[in-house]
Amino acid sequence: MNWLNSEAFTLLDQRIIWSDMIGNILGLITLALGWRRSLLTWPVQFLSGLVLFIAFYGHLAGSAGKQVVVMVVALYGWWQWNRNKDQSEDGHIAPRFATWRERGAMIAAAAVGTVAVALLFKAYPSLSWDPWPDAYIFVGTIVAMYAQARGMVEFWIAWLLVDLVGVPLNFANGYAFSGFVYVIYGALVLWGMRDWWLRSRRTSQPVLEGAPA
Is the pLDDT of residue 204 over 60? Predict the structure, then answer.
């Protein structure tokens, strides 16, 4: 599988690596499927993590380990959406806003998790080349995936916050394709957030007694 870490082509003087390109294309498809609330979101997310795990295994243990966590959360997301797919009239998961308690718990988990993971990365430098932003992106991604699995509209906001750091970090570390894809992520996130926001408002409106369903 060494070809996954070889150069696919050069774009604007930036080397595009096969694993970087394939993994992020799958990630882009995952985001589009998530917008449509398709169950296929999670198998594609799992495949994206698997591709990157294979690419990193053996020389970037920290990055490979992170992909294992992503794949586990993808399995959790598939289980959650499959279990709750009949919540809405169209047979998909029904988007909703998180409660204030859930928001507080996710913010606290993101803050504590980022500090803990960053300290782990600093203690073992081989796990990451840039501990703090790397930890922020990793923990933010897990929080976003968890919120998505629970059908929370806030997961789109979490992705935006990850993108704000992910775009410059990917360009700085030579993963140009990731940087370009993250820009497209931003546009998809805004459209997806609008769609889920509107759907959550429709599903939360009470039905008046005697009114047609």
Answer: no
Tell me what the mean pLDDT of segment 46-72 comes to.
80
Q: For residue 145, is it left (φ>0), alpha (ψ between -120 and 50) or beta?
A: alpha
Q: Measured between alpha carbons, how far is 126 from 122 in angstroms, rounded to an integer?
A: 9
pTM value?
Answer: 0.82
Amino acid letter, residue 159: W
**What per-residue confidence (pLDDT) applies to 106?**
96
Residue in 102, 198, 110 with CA at minimum distance from that of residue 162: 110
Q: How far is CA 131 from CA 64, 120, 165, 203, in A?
A: 15, 8, 13, 41
Q: Tell me: the pLDDT tens digits for 118-141? A: 999 899 887 777 889 889 988 998
Q: Report the distance separating Cα 26 and Cα 70, nearest Å.
A: 13
Among 161, 4, 150, CA closest to 67: 4
Alpha-carbon distance of 61 to 39, in angstroms, equals: 30
Residues 170, 139, 15: CA angle, nearest 5 degrees: 15
3-state SS, residue 11: strand
Is residue 179 within 8 Å of residue 163, measured between CB atoms?
A: no
Distances (CA, A) of 1 to 5, 20, 52, 127: 8, 14, 11, 21
Longest dimension (CA), the chain: 66
CA 179 to chain CA mean position, Å: 15
